[in-house]
Amino acid sequence: MIYATQAFFLRMVAASRDMVLWVHKLEGWISMDNTEQADMAQVPNGVEPSRSLINRIRTSYRLALRRAPNPEDSALWSMIGAKQADIHNALMSEDLDALRSLLSAPRHTNLYYGVDNLAKDVIAMDPSDTWKGAGKAYLSKIEDLLVSLGGRAVFNPEGGARYPDKTGPAPEALDKYLRAVEQQMGVELKFPNPFEGELGLQTSRGTASERAIQAIYQACLARRYASSSCIEIGGGTGRTAYYGYCMGLEYTIIDLPMTIVGQALFLAGSLGEDAIWMVGDSEPRGHRIALLPPSELNTIGPVDVVINVDSLTEMGEKTATEYIRWISENAAAFLSINHEANLFTVKNVCQALCPASIRSRSPYWLRPGYVEEVFSFSKENQQALVAVYRSTSWRITSPLRKLASLFR
Questions:
Q1: Quick one: pLDDT at residue 96?
Q2: For 128-138, what is the mean pLDDT?
Q3: Which H helix or E strand runs over 173?
Q4: Any residues with CB less than 8 A from the CB of 108 and at least 6 apart, and which?
Q5: Rounded Cα distance, 158 and 163, in Å
Q6: How would you classify the pairing of strands 199-203 and 40-42?
Q7: Residue 274, CA distances (Å) to 56, 183, 233, 279 in order
Q8: Half-sphere exposure in the Cβ direction for 159 (13 Å, CA)
Q9: For 68-87, what is the HEC assignment?
Q10: What confidence tens digit (pLDDT) does each residue in 59-100 have?
Q11: Are 332 and 224 in contact (CB under 8 A)?
Q12: Cα separation of 369 and 11, whole Å?
């Protein structure tokens, strides 16, 4: 696990400078005129959480901690926990006003360390203002998002009718991109900014952080496989849950008690306090986003899809295996977006539990070094897909074979 911790530090440094590196990568082939705005911005003011929300968060945290202490097989999360000791102590204290003050300014704490760049130690890694020049790179990320969603054709450097000169299409106006992304989502596109100090691309729909751009794609991916319900294991700040909820999914996050604190703040600040449900809440859940510790996983029935992003390979292998075992017994599909830089991979664990699982595997659209995989553990699904491939009635089954290939 020492290797995993070192690798994590390297990725955190890389993430904090990711957009700056994109600027250098794109120099020489991006050309924008003065009408195409790509200005960076820093959110000037945040949303102050109410005392009632802070009290709910504190109650839930204490209860979740008793039911689901942090895993002991991950040196990484032990290290992060040490950085969050001041927040833990405040959550265990009876001073509600002091806790409210601390949670009102995440950029001055390490609440989001390990899940978002809005953490004081991550910010300290790059104290300069180089982020201000990353606007074109962010615009390119949104263009990549649009291509990944199918709203714009993939550039082919070999040419073709679209690209007779073998040169990529010129960037278009930001608002045009956002309208096209919104069309692919099928709901109104917004970038909620409940926290002061968040960095991102200035748009007419809010400040678009790099994490928000990725969350849109991940929510759209989950919706492709979910008729109604989705569980996210390791939900980060809660951005993917935000977009999934807006798209109509019944959304549940399973996460560590401290991470749930951050998710509750983000989602309540973005959707309203009534949009979330945590252990300890007295009201029925209804259709609210549930933020649950791992101890509650076995209280959840079958689900359409489980999604995990940049999380399982950061856990201990024992913990990751326990999650995947539950997924194999309760989910129709499992979507994984993870790197393979640590001691085990998601593919290894899934195949150890279910060698015949049908899956797709491809590079992740929006972050180099990450793999996007789809697993299906259902024997019924596997038998149906095998039958499609073995059929000799080509005219009938050819379209089905193409569909089935998505699960390979």
A1: 98
A2: 87
A3: none
A4: 120
A5: 8
A6: antiparallel
A7: 11, 27, 22, 14
A8: 2
A9: CCCCCCCHHHHHHHHHCHHH
A10: 999 999 998 776 666 677 678 889 999 999 999 999 999 999
A11: no
A12: 11
Give the tokens for residue 378.
């259902």
Asked if residues 240 and 232 have their Cβ atoms less than 8 Å apart, the reply is: yes
* Residue pLDDT, tens place only, 263-288: 999 999 999 999 999 999 999 999 99
Q: How many degrees, rounded to 5, is the angle at CA 215 between CA 36 and CA 315?
A: 140
Pairing of strands 206-208, 199-203: antiparallel
Tokens 């149906």 sit on residue: 384
Q: Is the pTM of this model over 0.90?
A: no
| pLDDT class of 33 with cuts at 50, 70, 90 | very low
Average pLDDT score over the chain: 86
Are the C-beta atoms of residues 71 and 319 closer than 8 Å to each other?
A: yes
Q: Is the dihedral of CA 305, 310, 315, 318 positive or negative?
A: positive
Q: Can you name the residues that pair with 254 across neighbouring β-strands?
A: 233, 292
Residue 315 and residue 24: Cα distance in Å, rounded? 33
**CA 185 to each of CA 179, 289, 333: distance values in angstroms, whole numbers, following the listed order:** 10, 19, 21
pLDDT-derived band at 228 (thresholds 50, 70, 90) equals very high
Q: How far apart are CA 230 and CA 220, in angstroms?
A: 12
CB 364 within 8 Å of CB 333: no
Mean pLDDT score, 134-150: 95
Separation of alpha carbons 148 and 152, rounded Å: 8
Q: Specify whether the CB–CB gap between 232 and 308 falls below 8 A.
A: yes
Label residue 234 left, alpha or beta by phi (over 0 means left) and psi (-120 to 50 means alpha). Answer: left
Show Cβ contacts of residue 43 under 8 Å, excluding neighbours closer than 6 positions: 193, 195, 196, 197, 198, 199, 200, 207
Residue 105 and residue 31: Cα distance in Å, rounded? 38
